[in-house]
Structures are given as C-alpha cells and as structure tokens.
Design goal:
Elements: H1 3-24, H2 26-42, H3 48-70, H4 77-89, E1 90-91, H5 96-111, E2 113-114, E3 117-118, H6 122-133, E4 139-140, H7 149-165, H8 169-190, H9 194-198, H10 204-213, H11 224-243, H12 249-268
Antiparallel strand pairs: 1-4, 2-3
Helix pairs in contact: 2-4, 2-7, 2-10, 3-4, 3-5, 4-5, 4-6, 5-6, 6-12, 7-10, 8-11, 11-12
C-alpha cells in the first residue's frame, strides 16, 4: 500500500471516530449549545456556579444510584443533560434549589418505575415538582429570543437534525402544530393577540421542551401513532391549563399526560 493511501485511510479513520463520538454525545453538545447561545443572546445564566451545582448534583446522583441499582457505572450524559436543563429552566435567588431540583429529577428515574422503566422525563418531573411545591423559592425561565431570529434558527436546525436522527421528529412536529392551532383558538377565547399566544415557542424553555422533554425515548410510548397522540394530548392539556392561567402549563401537561400514557403502554405490553 502506498504511503499516500495509508495517510488517507488514517484520516478517514480519525474522521469516523470523531463523527461517532459526536453522534454519541450529540445530546449533551446540543443542550450546552442552547445554554451558550441563550446566555450569549439574553444572559439566561444566573451565574456559572448555578450551572456547575445543577450539573454536578445530577451527575453525582445518577452515577451513585446507577451503580447501586444496576451494579455498574453509568454514562454521565443523562445526568449532564438533566443538570443543564435544570440550570436553564429554573430561577432562584438561592443556590440549593438547583442542586435539589437536579437530585429530585434523577431520583425519579429510580423511584417511579414500572416493568423496569421510568415513567417521567427526569427534568420534567423535578422542575414540575419544585415549581408546584416551592413557588416562593423557584420560578421558571420566561425569556424569549425576541426579534433576534438567528439564535432560534440555529437551535431549531440542530434540534430538528437531532430528533430526526432519533426518529422522533414526528413527536416534535405534532406538538408544535397542535400548539400553534391551540394558540389560535386561545386567542379567539381570550381576545389576546395570536402572536402573543404563540410567542413562547421562540424561547429557550420551549427549545428544551420540544427537542428533549417531549421526545425523551425512554419515556415515549412504543408506537409512532401512539407517540403522535401523546404529543397532541400534551398540547391539549397545556391548552386547558393555560386557559386556567397556569404559567408553567407545558411542564405540568407533560408531567400529567406522559406518565399515564407510558404506564398504559407498558401495561398493555407483554414485556416482563
């Protein structure tokens, strides 16, 4: 073999290894990008310490309980994504809610299980729990991208690529279409401008919600039609909650609909 051919093969081998590594850690990379772009555009990070505390708590709890539950050290990607999601999506003047929310999120994977599967998306459970039980200490992120479309377009393009590769693009699409349709109906009922009703879709919170929470493979039902139905029902539940003035309607909607759908799906399954 000629030296030039060996060089080409080595370069191809390095490229394939790098590409495989990127694919393996696409989730952590994407959630980090949302954090960085959101902070660069609108300063969504309180400070670096809240991010480190949220991520550190999530990774530590996931590693320890994964070892206790499965008898082996788990990949830290899930904890990393959960911790970053918590750091992005909640706001508090205290430090402890970031650690506690991350810990509760990860613990939900090991406590609320049926047929060996966890029922809630971890960050959805932890954030919903804290927003519901500790409103004096925790609030949700409410920043939108505003008129600066470039950050939103970057996130959307990468998010679509990722969920397409995960074969969950139909989930995101059904939810977004349903959200827009219900926003139109809400605007007719409340007489608020349609753009005001649909505006939340342009925020970092919804980027995480539509690309990570609602498409979470371990907590999705098995069939494609079932996944699309669940996405529609989440949007419908959110519509009802929003009409009742619940600010954090998307979190609560998924926390209600998702586990029920997953439980029914597992109940109907013959899996042991």
């Amino acid at each position: 073999m000629e030296p030039s051919e060996m060089t080409v093969m080595k370069k191809q081998s390095v490229f394939h290894r790098v590409w495989a590594l990127l694919q393996k850690y696409m989730g952590p990379i994407f959630v980090s990008l949302i954090l960085l772009v959101g902070h660069w555009s609108f300063g969504i990070m309180e400070d670096i310490w809240t991010v480190l505390i949220a991520v550190g708590a999530a990774v530590a709890v996931d590693l320890v309980f994964g070892r206790l539950y499965f008898g082996k050290w788990k990949n830290a990607s899930s904890g990393y994504i959960t911790g970053n999601s918590v750091a992005i999506l909640i706001r508090s003047t205290f430090v402890w809610p970031y650690a506690l929310t991350s810990a509760i999120s990860i613990l939900s994977k090991y406590v609320f299980r049926y047929k060996g599967r966890h029922l809630w998306n971890p960050s959805n459970f932890g954030i919903s729990w804290m927003l519901l039980t500790s409103p004096s200490y925790v609030a949700g992120l409410s920043v939108q991208w505003g008129n600066n479309l470039w950050p939103m377009l970057i996130i959307w393009v990468l998010g679509i690529v990722i969920v397409h590769r995960a074969k969950k693009l139909h989930v995101t699409a059904v939810y977004v279409i349903s959200f827009v349709a219900f926003a139109l109906i809400r605007s007719q009922i409340t007489e608020d401008p349609f753009l005001a009703e649909v505006a939340p879709l342009t925020g970092p919170m919804y980027q995480l919600f539509i690309f990570f929470m609602i498409t979470d493979p371990p907590t999705n039902v098995r069939s494609k039609k079932g996944q699309m139905l669940v996405a529609f029902l989440v949007a419908l539940m959110e519509f009802v909650l929003r009409l009742n003035q619940l600010v954090y309607a998307p979190f609560y909607a998924l926390a209600i609909v998702g586990p029920v759908a997953k439980f029914i799906d597992l109940k109907m399954s013959r899996e042991k």
